Amino acid sequence: MSMHVIAGSGPVGSAVAVCLARQGERVRVITRSGTGPAADGIETIAADAADTGRLTDLAKGAAALYNCASPPYHRWPQDWPPLAASLLSAAERTGAVLVTMSNLCGYGPVSHPVTEHDPQAATGSKGRTPRGRCAPLAWSSRTCGSSGEVGYQFTQPFVVDSAACQDAFGQDAFGAAPTPMGQALPATLTWWRDQGRAAARKE
Length: 203
Hints:
alpha/beta, Rossmann fold, 2 domains
């Protein structure tokens, strides 16, 4: 049995926690409010993951540290850099594998299907924020194990104001016509539990 520390208890963070607990692992969920999924094997702690010292203390002895936090969208440029830096530093100090949840915003506009080999070349402030969040994984792998999990639009029963939900249901729920996600290329939605299982897998 190993200990796993998760920053964030939204749909994906909660899914990761539950998957790990079902595998018999010890799980510690960190949020500023101290809330999280209630299940055997899951401990919830009130702490700010951007506080590197506190996060490092909570992650001591952990096999992995999961970045599942999600600041409000309009606060990404301000809140993500110190949060991501704190998680990376805590992983380096404790030797925990760092697993980071991210999205495709960092790639910017593309004219072909995106793969992991494409450069993260977004030019807008919010697109550059996810790019910066994932960029340290390349060089940090020499000082701590690292992994990135990327999803497109998450769909889940708890977040009805997501872009995926608004575009798919349109008029009925939000007073607007449904749209094809504004995409010129085919896109696949990511179910929150699938993302959780992917992050919690053992390799």
